[in-house]
Amino acid sequence: MATRPTPIEPTYGESSIRVLKGLEPVKQRPGMYTRTDNPLHIVQEVIDNAADEALAGHGKRIAVTLHADGSVSVDDDGRGIPFGLHPEEQVPVVEIVFTRLHAGGKFDKGSGGAYSFSGGLHGVGVSVTNALAKRLQVSVWRDGQAAALSFSGGDVIEPLVVRPAAAGERKKGTSVRVWPDAKYFESAELPRHELMHLLRSKAVLMPGVTVTLTTEKTGDVQTWTYKGGLRDYLQQSLPADPMIPLFEGEHYAGSGEDENFAEGEGAAWCVAFTEEGTLLRESYVNLIPTVAGGTHEAGLKDGLFAAIKGFIELHSLLPKGVKLMPEDVFSRASFVLSAKVLDPQFQGQTKERLNSRDALRLVSAYVKPALELWLSQHVEHGKKLAELVIKQAQTRQRASQKVEKRKGSGVAVLPGKLTDCESKDTQLNELFLVEGDSAGGSAKMGRNKETQAILPLRGKVLNSWEVERDLLFKNNEIHDISVAIGVDPHGATDTADLSGLRYGKICILSDADVDGSHIQVLLLTLFFRHFPRLIEAGHVYVAKPPLYRVDAPARGKKPAAKIYALDDGERDAALDKLRKEGLKEGSWSIGRFKGLGEMSAEQLWDTTLNPDTRRLLQVQYGQLDFASTVDSMTKLMGKGEAQARRDLMELHGDAVEVDI
Asked: Any catalytic annotation for residue 435?
């Protein structure tokens, strides 16, 4: 009789810890650093570097070539990457730029820095391009010399060679040719339409700069040069004629003009309002396309709304019973927005969304007075725009009233501790389940009363994993949650009635510490076990308040600032950035929020409640199927599962950071 082999127990010791060096982290987890559906983003990193040279005023030409062998080259006439030895590392600078993560010339944003404004800011970009390329060649011309070196998979295969520039050879610039490694991408093909859109937008945002795209296979050459800027671009791209003349403008902070913004920060914009047809909306930060928008778009929305609302009130145009909201103004607006931000904070390395909270105030502060002046000079156009906005508001209110009628009159009495919102529009309304009465007080004062409701929870919610549905309402907190949201408890196989749902977003808001995480888990358990259809329909969210606040003094062009960090990692990254900006060690102060109740209403709004600046994670089922998820949750939350939990902790304990 054969005996079963004894399973080998995994060992966890000193040798289990692996240190990834150089560009190995990028190769191991490329999705953390770039888009992996195709190689466009790693090519864009090179294009962005060329654009940063033009943005700094050192180049007038960017040429991209799609070679027949699948490689792509980017050529510019900028200053050329330095190729002398780095004073500290004693390695050619051009080699460091392409082989070291977090190395670059864009960290120093103060006076005398190589780049005051740039899209690149992490020093990660082209090193990622290099890591994910079968081959990458760099040629540089500067100071009467020409230099060249080559890489493969991020490693130098042809060391730097420097020679005098030949007679008639170009004097300055950089040329990078990259062969993306197909094994890292779902498709090796570059999406041509996206590439063309990217290159055209660079030309639009940098009037006078010529951008070309050459395709070797066909011999086709496309050239973009715009002198009319954003207005011409938006006018040509709009699918429908605007109802009023385009509203455009630009403003950048001058020296000492505004202590809240650094010199040179600001925005250029062009906005069109159309009554029908598809909308065109494009935004950029330091020439980087932000396809997912961000705080600069929120600033444009805020400025437009404030100015138009003021105009409507000044001329007494608002019908009785109509209440304006920002979306009424923004819903028929097409725009192109180009912001210049000294130290932009993006969401992720792919830079698709801007997170910098100051950008909202920056753009709004310049758009609002410009539009107010424009409206006062064009009153008839303003009244026509007011008609459109009021019509949108009336349509929205009628739709919300229809939803309210379908709910019927048999609604349970709402819990007394619920501070409800004024709006009846389920799609706009949000309910925050807040840990503790003190935090609930700050949230009530800091919220948007129109669309945000607050339900404070006393103590920790019951672990409802093994509680029968009929006994759930013995617990007052669970009873109040169910009544407030307007949906009864149900199972995974039930057909739940969501017609009484009162809020489009149900947001769990707890402290950023371990106790807060425990409350999150208990509430998520409740929704997964007894309100699963709410998760499936995308109505459940987790709010992410900060754990730290760093108060930084003025540095260079940047004024004093309050920097919020979600965790230790974000705090350390913020401090590293302050050091690179030249601040002395300890010149900043760090505060740790013991709980949400310590935050003022204004702080809670800025960091956690404001839809334009907060971080809100939608709760979704992961890659496991439903049965596997139930099994995992049973191990975590079941009363008789102590041994299973212990096994899980021993298996995955090394992957958890402990907050003591």
From this structure: yes
Catalytic residue, candidates 515, 567, 570, 641: 515
Active site residue 515: yes
Q: Respond yes or no: is residue 513 known to be catalytic.
A: yes
Degrees (nearest 5) of the Cα angle 435, 441, 445? 125
Catalytic residue selected from 232, 327, 513, 570:
513
Q: Is 108 known to be catalytic?
A: no
User: 3-class SS at 66?
Assistant: strand
Instruction: State the sign of the Cα–Cα–Cα–Cα dihedral 64, 67, 73, 77.
Output: negative
CB-neighbour burial class of residue 7 (10 A; exposed 0-12, middle 13-18, buried 19+) = exposed
Both tokens assigned to 15: 């040798």
* Contact yes or no for 567/540 (Cβ under 8 A): no
Residue among 497, 466, 494, 462 nearest 478 (CA) = 462
In whole angstroms, what is the distance from residue 248 CA to residue 284 CA? 16
Question: What value, to the nearest 5°, has the Cα angle with vertex 293 and ends 292 and 295?
Answer: 135
pLDDT in tens, 554-598: 876 777 888 888 888 888 888 888 887 778 888 999 999 888 888
Q: What tens digit of pLDDT does each residue of 406-442 get?
A: 344 444 578 888 999 998 889 899 999 998 777 778 8
Catalytic residue among 511, 581, 606, 612: 511
